[in-house]
Amino acid sequence: MKLINIGLDNFVSGEKIVAVVSPDAAPIKRMIQKAKEDMKLIDASSGRKTRSVIFTENDQIILSCLTVESIKQRTSEEDINE
Q1: Closest-CA residue to 61 (of 26, 18, 24)
Q2: Which of 23, 3, 19 is nearest to 74 (CA)?
Q3: Contact 45/32 with Cβ under 8 angstroms?
Q4: 8 Å CB contact between 63 and 6
Q5: Mean per-residue pLDDT for 9-17?
Q6: SS3 readout for 18-64
Q7: Is the pLDDT of residue 79 over 70?
Q8: Distance between CA atoms of 46 and 14, rounded to whole angstroms?
Q9: Please, are residues 22 and 53 in contact by the beta-carbon 8 Å criterion?
Q10: Among 22, 79, 27, which Cα is nearest to 49's?
């Protein structure tokens, strides 16, 4: 299992990530709100500004304070290190 650091000593399984997107679009904001209501939201930003939204295979949504580009780099580094 590859664990990806998503900031502030929080990790997510790299194999379970489906998408990493910016939180700025209105549809993404609605999805975040729906996930919060359905108890499927994990806020790993520790109160900081949310800069990326991670969607997982099991319909969980994870908020991160790292940018989409940073998470992309970290997932790419894991692929290289295999």
Answers
A1: 18
A2: 3
A3: no
A4: no
A5: 95
A6: EEEECCCCHHHHHHHHHHHHCCCEEECCCCCCCCEEEEECCCCEEEE
A7: no
A8: 21
A9: yes
A10: 22
Quote the tokens at residue 56.
């997982």
AA letter at 28: I
* CA 71-75-77 angle, 5° bins: 115
Does residue 56 contact residue 21 with C-beta atoms inside 8 Å?
no
Residues 42-69 pLDDT 10s: 999 999 999 999 999 999 999 999 999 9
Q: What is the distance between the alpha carbons of residues 41 and 47, in angstroms, rounded to a whole number?
A: 14
Over 80: is that where the pLDDT of 81 sits? no
Contact 33, 16 (CB under 8 A): no
